[in-house]
Amino acid sequence: MHHTILLGSPVRCADGKAGTIGGLVINPNRNHVDYVILQSEQTGGQEYFVPSGQIQRASARELSLPCSWGELNDLPHPERTAKQGSVLANLSDLV
Question: Rounded mean pLDDT of 30-59?
Answer without folding.
Answer: 85
